[in-house]
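--- STAGE predict ---
source: upstream dedup step, 1 unique chain passed
mode: sequence only
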Amino acid sequence: MQANRILIDTLISPKRIQHLTIPDWELVIRQARSSQLLARLAITINEEALESLVPEGAQRHLRAAIAHQSHLRNAVRNEVAYIAEALDSIKTRLTLLKGAAYELADLAPARYRIFNDIDLLVQKERINDVELSLLLHGWAGIQHDQYDDHYYRTWMHEIPPMRHLERHSIIDVHHNIVPDFGKIHLPAEKLLRDTRQCLNAPGVFVLSIPDLILHSAVHLFNDGEFDHALRDLFDIRDLIRESIISDADWQQLISRAEELGLGRPLYYALRYLNIVLKEPYAPYLKRLTKYAPNSTALKVMDYLFVRGLKPEHSSCDDSSTLLARFLLYVRGHTLRMPLRLLLPHLARKAVTQLRNKYFSRQEPLRLP
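--- STAGE serialize ---
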């Protein structure tokens, strides 16, 4: 197996592990850890009853990943209960997004997911009340300068992240799944009208299955952040495999994408599930052809996304991988805000990074 495919191919066909050498195992584990896929690798091997094929040294890493992921799943459920209490005090419904939503709704991606933070969606007109209630319940804004605070509150679809002072959990509070100034304009009310309550968590809601898939697709293919892109692609695969089964399910998903103006992110999701993870979605891609870019642009996007969706590890990089990820980062920003806002923003961030790197004050030398 090629180095840049060894983790992906192992996750797709776990029985391949019988052919892995010790150096192969070392590479697979490093790639999986850096891509937040080590728990998925471990649990997939267990589900296939292949533990006997794993060398003892590798087994220690896999067992530790499963224990860590189990702890995080419990921690997320506990933290959601605290957040629900804070929002209930102001009579605001808690609607979860992404990883926490998968966990509380008992959806397939949660079996393998590593959780970094908790994302929630609230009505825009209640976001100040939500922020104040969270402050009163122990969360505080993560330190940002005045410009960053203005950037979040004016241009983005969320307020600055908040961290609990004791438990150190991080919350991202959204009022939409796309930025207000971005190229996609989506009324968040359409999402909030179609939520469903979690069976084992009264008072906690998640988006409908089509909306969860579409949110994951727009997050992956429009935001420009590719640190854990492969993990997110597997999440979309799991959601589709679990819930989009019949032709009626597919039609509902495609119709919802058209209604919300998310036809192109869904097209990209199915295209790269097919190209990268070998999922057989060609018939459904045909229904979304009208949302594809022209043939020249599509070749460019294939070049960029195939590299951006590799595991986040140096063994997967070629001479153009870093350039591809940089261009995807810039593309993501152009989709989030117009050039009149983007160019000054990127210039300011570049100057700030240079100043911090070369001109930050050094601690004075203290002699004994």
